Request: fold
Amino acid sequence: MKKSTLALGVLAASVAIGYPLYNSLLGAKAVQVSESAQVNKFAEYHHSDSFITAQSLNQMMHSGQDVVVIGALNPLKPDQPIAGSFSMWRSDYSAKDGAYDFGGMRNSTEEMESILSQYGATPESTIVVYAANAHHDAARLYWQIKNLGHQDVRYLDGGLNAWIGAGLPTGKSEPVVTATQYKAPQPQQESQALATLDMVLNAQQHTDEWVIIDTRGNDEFDGSATKSGAYGPGTIASSVHINWTQALNDDTTLKSASELKALYGDVIQGKKVIAYCQSGVRSAHTSMVLTEVLGAEEVYNYDGSWIEYSHAHYEKNHPQVNVINGKG
Reply:
């Protein structure tokens, strides 16, 4: 959907119910976060430099450092971006229509290079990603940019919510920059983090070596709900259910390393991991937690996720694609 169409939808909604109510219902909720507590928490993470606080980001943006800040923000919601940041949405970093038989897949390396070039990024830039309320979209961007082989990518813990809570400026976004010719440093790195349908089928046959984690909501896992884009209800056979939100505190920041180890440790111990959800967004968050917080190796995000898997089962009748909690 074009951004102009989405913008008209925002305007119509605002007129219909009143902007203050609209903003209070759908806008980012400010949260008060202790920066010192965050810094101490990060110190326990396996890759502490993959995370940043709102205050540290603000300082970095005003110190002349080479930093590119990107918000994964839904244009249908009334969120004001971080001042000085760029913003984009799933349609911008997803595959073009017709590239696949189903939706939700990542865009190409060349398309990501074009986007980062427009933002003035180079392979040496620090790239910080953020989102609002639910921060899985920031993790999806994190995953896609890391897959380019870009070294310094950071996730804003607490996202726009923590930024607003710290009283930091919003609104003046989409800065004018000199475009670059960004080239992915190691585009082949994608194969080290991407799960395919064939990998999922192989993992189901080797559960002593692999674990598949369903990061969706309870209703999706038990088959009582099917999100738009999927071809039927259910879950991937042999998967373990851990809702991605269990990795978060009530204020939307990440939990401590010890809490996350207690949540995932026994499940992933000695195993290679495939995480999935509806379209590889929520599972990207879980993948980030497992690799960057817990230091797990051989963690793969299933880009096609339930959309592709359900397509193979319900539309293609793939004989090896087994579903539980499904229909028929």
